[in-house]
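seq as requested:
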Amino acid sequence: MGPILVNTIPETLLPPPAPYVPTADDRPPVDSSRRERRAVTLARRRRVRRRIRRAFLAVLLVFTVVAAWSLGHALLAPGNDPAGVKFVEWVRDHGGGSAVDRIEAWWYTNHEPRRGGTPQGGIPKAKPPVRAGRVAAPATPAREPVPTNLSPIATTPLPNEGVWQPTGKLVDGQPVIYQTFLRPDTVHTSLVTGAVWMNAHRLRAVLHNGLQLPGGGPWSSGPKIEPSDYPVLAAAFNGGFRLNASRGGYYTETKEVKPLVDGRASLVIKNDGTISVGQWGRDFHMAADIASVRQNLDLVVDGGHPVPGLLANDHSRWGATLGGKVYVWRSGLGVDKDGNLIYVGGEGLDITTLADVLARAGAVRAMELDINSEWVSFYTYSGTGPTDIRGNKLLGSIQRPADRYLKDGTRDFVALMLR
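struct tokens:
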């Protein structure tokens, strides 16, 4: 009998075994109570998350509505400030002051004024003086004083640089206000700073109170110059920093809006309209004849010279807003040795160049006023009534319109009337 053949196939050629799939009978029993508890827990978590989202959205909605209402109220509030200025002031009032300062400092630091060059159009010409009629003057008036021309700062002076030009309203045919223009340093020679000399003995000062700064009231001297004052209105200029940044106080019409601080630079107006600048507690003390005191930081000129330490940019003395080293629109006010008033304003100034121009113009004591193009404003006036009153800017580049102080404003300012 022959051999038996077995049909064998090599294992390597066989298909792999099918994967094991457990059947329902093979799976371990599931605890249905555990599954139900897990489902309940997941449902509870979903409900909590929905409630948290709804609460967050509700809070966000309330915050948005309140913020929108507050901002809208600020934008529509009385006053002649532009909408952009009102928005920035609203941000400052709602905890964003430091952020605004940082943004402004960054902007100005990275957009410093151009170096070199000359002013377009040369040195400006002041508006010629105009007759205002007789205003409480002697029958034979004495010749009014004339300020001494300034030594230009720029290496190569331009025609009329530093020369005082009469302007404003005449009193008995004589000017009591003069303006001059000069470059503020030897580097930014395309910029022009304006300086004003005012015969304080022929002018009467009034501190006007803004709708928001200081606010409150009612005030006898409110947020605008009244038409009844137009016939004797000679000039007007801006006040100082916001009160929470001024490091000083504010007193007027027998009300101390913010406590006065010894050592602070102070603009002081007496009941008879006499105005001066000095250090509170040294040059001035509270007395019955004081009508108004507007404080702002520390003196920048004392004894006829810029005070020591200006280059150190001491924020505790001259303000943290933007910092003294930043080139920006600035303004300042001082008095000369005879008690006459000196105002300086212009763009591209730091604290040192502002103080230098004030001292060069004859100030023996001087303080910084407000800064930034939105706030620096000086005008002389022509006309005597609502139909012909005209404001004339110290510099054509002043941003605010010439009727700024003839309409309700948000900030304090000083008006000067002919005696």
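Residues 117-137+160-418 form one domain.
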